[in-house]
Amino acid sequence: MSAPTFPHGRLIGKLAAIVVASFAFGFALVPLYDVFCAVTGFNGKTEGSRTVGGFSLGGFGADAGPPSRIDRSRTVTVEFTGTVMPGLPWEMRPLTFSLELHPGEMQLVKYLVRNTSARAVTGQAVPSVTPGQAAQHFDKIECFCFRQQTLAPGESREMPLAFIVKPEIGEDIRHVTISYAFFGVAPVRAAADRE
Amino acid sequence: MSYAPTAPHDTQHDGHTPSGLLRWLTTTNHKDIGTMYLLFSLLMFFVGGAMILAVRAELFQPGLQLMQPEFFNQLIGVHALVMIFAALMPAATGFANWQIPLMIGAPDMALPRINNLGFWLLPPAALLLTLPFLLAVFGVGDGAVATGWTLYAPLSVQGGLGVDFAILALHIFGISSILGSINIIVTIFNLRAPGMTMMKLPIFCWGWLITAFMLIATIPVLAGAITMLLTDRHFGTHFFNAGGGGDPILFQHLFWFFGHPEVYILLLPLWGLMPHVLATFSRKPIYGYKAQVYAFIAIGVLSVIVWAHHIFTAGLPVPALLYFMYSTMAISVPLAVLFFCWIATMWRGAMSFETPMLFAQGFIVLFGVAGLTGLVLADVAADAQYHHSYFVVAHFHYALFAGGIMGVMTGVYYWLPKWTGHMIDERLGKLHFWLTIVSFNLAFMPQFFVGLAGMPRRIPDYALQFAEFNAISTVGAFILGFSQLLFAYNVWKCMRGGEKAAGRAWEGADGLEWELASPPPHHSWETPPAIR
Prior knowledge:
The complex is a heterodimer.
Chain A: H1 9-40, E1 49-52, E2 55-58, E3 76-84, E4 90-94, E5 98-101, E6 106-115, E7 121-130, H2 132-135, E8 138-143, E9 149-151, E10 156-165, E11 175-184, H3 187-193
Chain B: H1 21-26, H2 30-59, H3 69-104, H4 112-120, H5 122-137, H6 155-158, H7 161-190, H8 203-234, H9 248-282, H10 289-302, H11 318-330, H12 332-346, H13 355-378, H14 380-386, H15 390-420, H16 426-452, H17 467-496
């Protein structure tokens, strides 16, 4: 079998290369998926924080800065909701449940978050905007989801969200929901995740 | 292109072939390995079947009678994994091992030792998959993987040690499949008899060739996904953990990128087998050989770009929904070509209805039902209602039992005279066929209706209005399960003795394998046959 005339080596090499390439492709899908979702707003994903001219900006196309135009010809209703994921001993509720705004207006709302346990706990909020088409027009200017939050035992804190619904949002979207899921962050990982 | 071996590698062992267990552990003979694959597959078919009969017994009545929901969840998931990875895939590989060298005039598979390794990876993998059941009996862990075969995150990130066992088992099954696939591709490319061009290749080999390419392209993606799952579980990564910046939906995409082609991986070798059986018992040449080969290639290519139809309800945007709906429906075009060719092969033939032909025709009818109900599921608007209901369960069992298992049985009944040198017991075979086809429909047809009425899958208990249909389904499942013992008995009987089979065991059979004696000598085609 290992005679010098073994004629299959080249073909086996090519096939093995396909196997390796497919394995790598699976891992390449991880960043590709994130980029795809961020660019298209699929899956309700909004961009993380970014700093422009001293301001911490979030949202798709935030490089352009806050829009100066306010579209007073129509209004959009924004609803706020939040869930604490299992394993995180917290409670959260929005202090504003819903508000009506003109696209382009900046608004500030707060969530009340309370640590119900007797130890300090760190959490990370992950936002999701519904409908998905609205996600790329939802600019978060300041958000408690930009960084991990640590609450002392029993501590309550009002956490702010400043945002703009951009005037480019489609005329047919009159209702937008932003939902936060608060996840627990294991203490050992907290330092690494801040990188 | 073709290569004529001067000394097939294990002829030199003839003087000192080990006997007993050692022979089977060390064999590099494609016929021995094919036999082991098929017997292993038969054994695991009964293991997986026993699990689902326990599930059906629980579902006989509403309420919980026999087991707790946790154990129910373990049974359904392991049933699926066993049937897919330990029963159907090894059966197809067993066919490939036995038949491809005989059909293309090769002395053996190209890589005999890899072949041996490919088989012997399977028993440890199957053991790993089912071991947690036993460990739980002794108080270790909380049983086998309970996530269903799809291993969706975040459930699988939080699951018990059964998930780790399943991940390792799937890795080993995957390596075995990849080794088998490389072997098959190399054999078909390099070892065809002189004069056998690719377009003279028997259509069964074409089906397997496409399957093998799909395997080496998609199994590694599954391997990647479950590796990420493993590191998420134990090494602090956050691929699927939203709190750490990951995304659980990503797992669904990765899984189904493998999972959808997997369906065709299970079925393509059997689509390749059907034309041979239909042509033999219609005493006509295969109709539309080229059309079927191109249809295979088209299905292979399309299969990797349609995966998200499994996750229509996960919150995809409308443009993506439409794309995946239309691309999925496009697959029905090459499949319709196959159905047309199968029927045209029988058209005005001098048909006779031996057991393999009965199974082949049962396959065509029931697999047709699977295809048509699949079109309904591919419809984005309708899928919202059908998704995760018993309609889906019924649909994929029409595809994978009627299309998969009955396809395998077609092949076994068709080739068993060649392998053993004895004809099968026709009376027993026909009884097995009629019991199977009636009880199969009894078991699964009602599930379409309870699914439409809103019964969700993977639930151990259900609303009272579904009670009658579930009782019927359970009765059908038990008849179906126990009538498969007839099949095992028939195979055993045929191995032991019976009417001597001629080289050309079936009157209308055509192809190189029928030019050898039945059973073929231990080493066949040491001198390659001349083609035309």
